[in-house]
Every structure is written in structure tokens, then in C-alpha cells.
Amino acid sequence: MTYIELKDSTKKFKTGDTEIIANDSLSFSIEKGELVVVLGASGAGKSTLLNILGGMDTNDSGQVIIDGENISTYSDKELTTYRRHGVGFVFQFYNLVQNLTTKENVELASEIAKDPLDSVDVLQQVGLDDRIDNFPAQLSGGEQQRVSIARAIAKNPKILLCDEPTGALDSQTGKQILQILQDRSRNEGSTVIIVTHNSAIAPIADRVIRMCDAKIQKVETSGQPSDINDIEW
Ligand SMILES: Nc1ncnc2c1ncn2[C@@H]1O[C@H](COP(=O)(O)OP(=O)(O)OP(=O)(O)O)[C@@H](O)[C@H]1O
Ligand SMILES: [Mg+2]
Fold first, then answer.
1. How confident is the model at residue 233 (pLDDT cuts 50, 70, 90)?
2. What are phi and psi for residue 224, nearest 5 degrees?
3. Is 212 close to ligand 1, i.e. is its CB under 6 Å away?
4. Which of 64, 126, 147, 186 has its CA 20 to 30 A from that of 170?
């Protein structure tokens, strides 16, 4: 069943006199429960796409249909509800609240969700059970990234949007995180979208969307995604 569908979605940014097309007429569809990898070089428009899918930014034209609803016509209030209940977002640069502990950062997000998971359980899954009372400044980059991942997962969302979720992680910890994300899709039916420039991650996906210069270059589906233990980077 098609769960996410983009039809000619375009987003431009204007700075002074120059206009940049960040997403140029993107069209694709994603099935419910798929693990999707969006690949593309720096500046290809991946974060812009993810922000639009997550209701954090709006496009200029085209449709963004999520579970049958075109969110590109949503009001700010409708977008807030959509973000709050429908989406878990792993930010490229973590966006943790600096004066809250690890546990509080995760709870802040899960408290507003409808059917959240236990914060400490999720922190345990990402290997941070001994860091729950630390503040972000006391954590390494990779640990902060894992708090950000735990925060998104603890909301137990239908859609998990992850912007370079393994960017700061060594390959072993990265694989542990990818396994958690794949389990969310396989066992809980969450639709998981991972944005990365690391093409080594692509084989684990059910669908790979390649972006280049603000456009979709290619969409491939895989009947037999690789085991996470079999990839290497
Ligand atoms: N708020 C903004 N204002 C102006 N230009 C922007 C803004 N956000 C993104 N852009 C531009 O849009 C293009 C796409 O940016 P985007 O962040 O989506 O790329 P990306 O694929 O995520 O890159 P990276 O892999 O480096 O994170 C870039 O040229 C970028 O400079
Ligand atoms: Mg980006």
C-alpha cells in the first residue's frame, strides 16, 4: 500500500538576488513499513526533502501525500499535530536541548506522543543506559547522535525520518543503530527513511532513492535487502 507519495514537489530558497532550487519536481512513492535510503551528494537536497516530509518546512508547489492526506495544504496548526503524533525526526545536527539530561531530552519528545515507548528502554537499546543523567555537553558526538535517535524512536511514530543517523558513529555502533531502525520497519511496521551520502548503507534498504542536483536520479526497489552484518564502511 502506498503510504507516502510525492508529486512534482518543488522547493526554492531565495537569498538576496539568488534563487536556489533545492528540490526540483520530485515524484516518488513509498510503501508502508518500508526501509528507504535516500542517497545523494552534499547539497543534493536531501535534508530539504526530509524537512518537507516531516512537516518542518513546506514546499512551493506539488503534492506531499502522507497516508492519503496532502500535507502541503495543511495549516501551521495541522502541521504541528502531524509532527507531534506522526513523525519521529533524527536531525543531522542532533538539536538536543542543552540544559536537559539525556533522559529528559527523550522524555520531552515522547511525552507529547500518543503511544510512546519507555525512554529508559529505548536508551538502553541505543547503548546509553549509563549516560541517562548526563547533559549533552558531557557526551561525545556519537553519544549525542544516539540520544537524538532514541528521542525519535521513543515517540513510537508511524514515520521515522533520519538525517545522516550514523554520520558520527563508528561502523559497529552505526550498524547497531541501523539494526534498530530496520527492526522498527520490520517488526512495528514503521516507515523508515534514512538520508545519507554513504552509499555503503544502500544495500539494506527495501527502496533506494538517488538524488542529484535537486532531482530524483533513480528509484530502485530490492526484493532481498542485505543483512546489516554484511555491509561494511
Ligand atoms: N534555509 C535555506 N536557505 C537557503 N538555501 C538553503 C537553505 N536550506 C538549504 N539550502 C540550499 O539548498 C540546497 C540543498 O540543501 P540540503 O540541505 O537539502 O542538501 P543536503 O543534500 O542535505 O546536503 P548535505 O549532505 O550537505 O547535508 C543547497 O544548495 C543549500 O545551500
Ligand atoms: Mg543535509
1. confident
2. -135, 80
3. no
4. 186
Q: Which of 19, 26, 48 to mutate to test the pocket of ligand 1 (most atoms within 8 A of CB)?
A: 48
Rounded to 5 degrees, what angle do the CA atoms 75, 76, 77 make? 90
Give the position of cell 514537489: 9
Whole-angstrom distance, CA of residue 203 vs CA of residue 196? 13
Beta-carbon-side half-sphere exposure of residue 57 (alpha carbons within 13 Å): 18
Read off the pLDDT of residues 5-56 as tens digits, 9 standing for 90 and up: 999 999 999 999 999 999 999 999 999 999 999 999 999 999 999 999 999 9
pLDDT tens per residue, range 139-191: 999 999 999 999 999 999 999 999 999 999 999 999 999 999 999 999 999 99
**In 10 A of CB 223, how many CB atoms?**
5
Q: Give the whole-angstrom CA distance, residue 128 versus residue 33.
A: 26
Q: Beta strands 18-31 and 87-90: pairing type?
A: unpaired
Tens digit of each residue's pLDDT (9 = 90 or more) over 79-113? 999 999 999 999 989 999 999 999 999 999 999 99
> Could you tell me if the CB of 38 is within 6 A of ligand 1?
no
CATH architecture of the domain covering 31-59+86-230: 3-Layer(aba) Sandwich (3.40)
Domains of the chain: which residue ranges? 31-59+86-230
